Structures are given as structure tokens and as C-alpha cells.
UniProtKB/TrEMBL annotation:
Domain 3-hydroxyacyl-CoA dehydrogenase NAD binding residues, every copy: 5-184
Name this protein carries in UniProt: 3-hydroxyacyl-CoA dehydrogenase
Coiled coil residues, start to end: none
Pathway: Lipid metabolism; butanoate metabolism
UniProt cross-references to SUPFAM superfamilies, sorted A to Z: 6-phosphogluconate dehydrogenase C-terminal domain-like (SSF48179), NAD(P)-binding Rossmann-fold domains (SSF51735)
Record domain 3-hydroxyacyl-CoA dehydrogenase C-terminal: where: 187-282
This protein's record includes keyword Oxidoreductase: yes
Xref: InterPro entries: 3-OHacyl-CoA_DH, 3-OHacyl-CoA_DH_NAD-bd, 3HC_DH_C, 6-PGluconate_DH-like_C_sf, 6PGD_dom2, NAD(P)-bd_dom_sf
Keyword RNA-binding (UniProt): no
Organism (species): Alicyclobacillus fastidiosus
Keywords noted in UniProt: Oxidoreductase
Entry superkingdom: Bacteria
Protein family per UniProt: Belongs to the 3-hydroxyacyl-CoA dehydrogenase family.
């Protein structure tokens, strides 16, 4: 089956990044969110990214216009998905919300449609069980920022078919991504490692081992990470990271118990870049 029309559910950071990358790759994309302001921000972000590409002569103005013409934004769920070849869900990392979305997709999408969740930790088997087509359900874990990060983890659920996996891999390839095949286990590959490193960095910060800046600098320069784990947590969103840690703690045990400082910052509303403060203060930065 050839995928030409993709519906992306959720216009937050990941959803808009997936939609942007997909329209650049030539897909027709319907981007859905229940919040019209979120859709407006997503469109503004895509325009801004494309304008930079045009200014750097990486994209012709006509190509920018053609890419934007492939994007539809809508608050109408049925309209977004009713003729989709593939749906990529990018809503909050909460199982009850994902299950509800997939049950709705099952009722509204064409019979051939592939269902992909952008979860970074959660079970595509459990999500697929909310539908009558678990063989057509898979996880495609993109990374932030989607247009720059090369990897997509493609995670099979218990009943995911080989055809579904190959379709997901072909879509990732067309988007310019490298992919790895992962058999479902909580946290997959990257999130298990990233959450452990980030959680340990948070513990060191609360223990006074070093400042946030020096912990990140040590990891970047000493271990050759492109970004320090605390800055990365701020970018992901500390509320999202806490939900991931809580899920992994529930599934994998004490090793993944969230650092107390993470819980404290989330309770204080210090969620990272999106609120202006997390482990770093972004309010004075342009």
C-alpha cells in the first residue's frame, strides 16, 4: 500500500514537527487539534521554518508554497482522518487519552489505514487493543526537533504485521529518516537510556554534586552528547518527562523512580522551555 495522505493528531511540539517534515517530503497532511490556537501556532512555526530555508537558499519560494498547499489544519476530527492512509497520533503521553483516540480512529478511518502512535514509552499492543485492527497498529517514535533529528524508532506491538512495519519504515525513509526496528518493551531503546541518564543528572543536581550548567557541560564534552540531559529535559518538557518516568517506574521498577526534584519542579509549574523556566531560566533569552 502506498501512503499519500497522513493525518497527524495533536499539534503540539511533536505533532507540528511531524506534520512539517511530512509536507516537506511530499505527503498530503491533515493536522488536527481540539485547540484552534494551537493550530495557529503550528502554522506560524512551519512558516517561520520554511522562511529560514528560503533565506538560506535551501528551498525555492515556489516549493514553500507547494508544501504549505499540502497542509490542511482542522479542529474537525472526522474531517482530518476519514480519508487518511496513515494516522500518526501525537497527543499527551497518557494511556487513557491514547486509547480513546485510537478507538475513535477505528470507527472513522478507512479499512486500509495504518495507525501509528508517537509514544516514547508506551505499549502499542495496549493501544492497538482499543481497535479492531491491532495488526495495523505500530509505534513510530520521532525525536525533537523532528525536522533535524534523523532517527525514528519503529516499535512492533504483539500483533503488528510485517506489512504494517514495512509501510511505517517506508514513510520514515521518505521523510528522510533512519529507522530502527524495536520489539515492544517499556521505554523501547532510546527512552530507557535517556530517562536513566536524565534522572541521574537530576539526582546529582539535587545532591549538590555540580550546577546544572556544569553537569550538562560534563556530559556534553566528556561523553560527546550533543545536548546536556538537563537542557534536554527542559526541551522535552518536565511534565512529559515526569509522565515517562512514572510509566517506566510502574513497569520496570525502582531504577526508574523519578528524582524528587523533577516532581517538585512540575508541581511548581517549572516545566522547561515552554513555561520559561525549568532547570534553566529562559525568560531573559531571546
Amino acid at each position: 500500500m502506498s501512503v499519500e495522505k497522513i493525518a497527524v493528531i495533536g499539534a503540539g511540539t511533536m505533532g507540528r514537527g511531524i506534520a512539517y517534515t511530512a509536507i516537506l517530503a511530499g505527503f498530503q497532511v491533515a493536522l488536527h487539534d481540539i485547540d484552534s490556537e494551537q493550530l495557529t501556532r503550528a502554522t506560524e512555526d512551519m512558516n517561520r521554518l520554511m522562511e529560514r530555508r528560503v533565506q538560506r537558499q535551501e528551498m525555492a519560494p515556489d516549493d514553500r508554497s507547494a508544501a504549505l498547499a499540502r497542509l490542511q489544519i482542522t479542529t474537525d476530527f472526522k474531517q482530518a482522518v476519514e480519508d487518511a492512509d496513515m494516522v500518526i497520533e501525537a497527543v499527551l503521553e497518557m494511556m487513557d487519552i491514547k486509547v480513546e483516540v485510537f478507538a475513535q480512529l477505528d470507527a472513522l478511518c478507512p479499512a486500509h489505514a495504518i495507525f501509528a502512535t508517537n509514544t516514547s514509552t508506551m505499549s502499542p499492543t495496549e493501544i492497538g487493543a482499543a481497535t479492531t485492527r491491532p495488526r495495523q497498529t505500530i509505534a513510530m517514535h520521532f525525536f525533537n526537533p523532528v525536522h533535524k533529528m534523523r532517527l525514528v524508532e519503529i516499535v512492533r506491538g504483539l500483533e503488528t504485521s510485517d506489512d504494517t512495519f514495512e509501510i511505517a519504515r517506508s514513510v520514515a525513509t521518505r521523510m528522510g529518516k533512519e529507522s530502527v526496528e524495536v520489539n515492544e518493551f517499556p521505554g523501547f531503546v532510546t527512552s530507557r537510556i535517556s530517562c536513566l541518564v536524565g534522572n541521574e543528572a537530576m539526582k546529582m543536581l539535587q545532591e549538590g554534586v555540580a550546577s546544572a550548567e556544569d553537569i550538562d557541560k560534563a556530559i556534553q564534552l566528556g561523553l560527546n552528547y550533543p545536548m546536556g540531559p538537563l537542557a534536554l529535559a527542559d526541551l522535552v518538557g518536565l511534565d512529559s518527562r515526569l509522565r515517562n518516568m512514572q510509566y517506566l517506574h510502574q513497569k520496570l521498577g525502582e531504577t526508574y523512580r523519578p528524582a524528587p526534584i523533577l516532581e517538585k519542579y512540575v508541581k511548581a509549574g517549572r516545566l522547561g522551555r515552554k513555561t520559561g523556566r525549568g532547570f534553566y531560566d529562559y525568560t531573559s533569552k531571546s
